[in-house]
Amino acid sequence: MSTLEIDRVRKSYSSLAVLKEVSISINTGDFLVLLGPSGCGKSTLLNMIAGLETITGGEIRIAGKVVNDLSPKDRDIAMVFQSYALYPTMTVRQNIEFGMKIRGVSPGEREAAVKAAADMLQITHLLDRKPSQLSGGQRQRVAMGRAIVRQPKLFLFDEPLSNLDAKLRVDMRTEIKRLHARLGTTIVYVTHDQIEAMTLATRVAVMKDGVVQHLDEPQAVYDRPANVYVARFVGSPA
Ligand code: ADP
Ligand code: MG
User: Is residue 6 helix, strand or coil?
Assistant: First the structure.
């Protein structure tokens, strides 16, 4: 079953065409990485899936439902950004359960959801701390915890690791991969980092100037790149 269908989607800012007829379809449980250099339109596309940007043309469907005109909260998604603003005056626990509280989830259910997410992310011992008492990697885990408790159909990540140092980036990569396996969830993940893309993706879309150049499993993209641009970008042997 397709969880996400991006159907001939376009985006323009006045006369500037940022995305030109992008079509991508992925199945439930897929880990799609949008890979490409800065400015190629990755964040724009992700924001359109999230409902944070309007769609100039085409259609986006989540679990079969056209979402073009739905607000972000009605799209069954959760998003983790590069700058994952946590509420500084709240504890980790309060940060994670805040969204559920707003939606009127009962205290008992909230507690159970926080416990399960914290357990999965190994941050149970941090639940009573404030964000200022956490490392960068720990904050990123809390941001993921916030997303997990929403139990969305679709997780959206925009360069979530780019503010972390190199060692932590590798650790968190493993963490995200484990999370994907454990939750069996569908993920769309934006990065300009080829290695990150190749290690995480079940499907990778290599983008350039608002066009998907190649969409396939990472190994296929690497072994049989669609064109010279893709070959160079993913570092395929000549
Ligand atoms: P990426 O995430 O791949 O780095 P973006 O999606 O952020 O790229 O941007 C793609 C292109 O769209 C860039 O040329 C950027 O300057 C342009 N762009 C993004 N947002 C806007 C905006 N609000 N108004 C005008 N141009 C924009
Ligand atoms: Mg971006």
Answer: strand
pLDDT the model gives residue 164: 79
Alpha-carbon span 209 to 132, nearest angstrom: 39
**Is residue 163 pLDDT above 80, yes or no?**
no
- Give ipTM to 2 decimals: 0.98
How far does the centroid of ligand 2 lie from the alpha carbon of residue 169, in Å?
A: 17
Q: Is 187 exposed, middle or buried (0-12, 13-18, 19+ CB in 10 A)?
A: buried
Nearest CA, atom 19, ligand 1? 44
Q: Determine contact, residues 127/134, Cβ cutoff 8 Å.
A: no
For residue 152, give every residue at least 6 positions away whose Cβ sits within 8 Å of its Cβ, in sequence order, or none. Answer: 76, 77, 78, 185
DSSP string, 21-50: EEEEEEETT-EEEEE--TTSSHHHHHHHHH
Measured between alpha carbons, how far is 86 from 225 in angstroms, rounded to an integer?
40
Q: Return the exposure string of 125-142: e unless at least 16 CB atoms fall within 10 Å of the residue's CB, then b.
A: ebbeebbeebeebbbbbb
* Residues 153, 3 contacting (CB under 8 angstroms): yes
Q: Is the CB of 43 under 6 A from ligand 1?
A: yes
Q: What is the pTM of this model?
A: 0.92
Q: Which residue minimizes the CA distance to atom 2 of ligand 1? A: 43
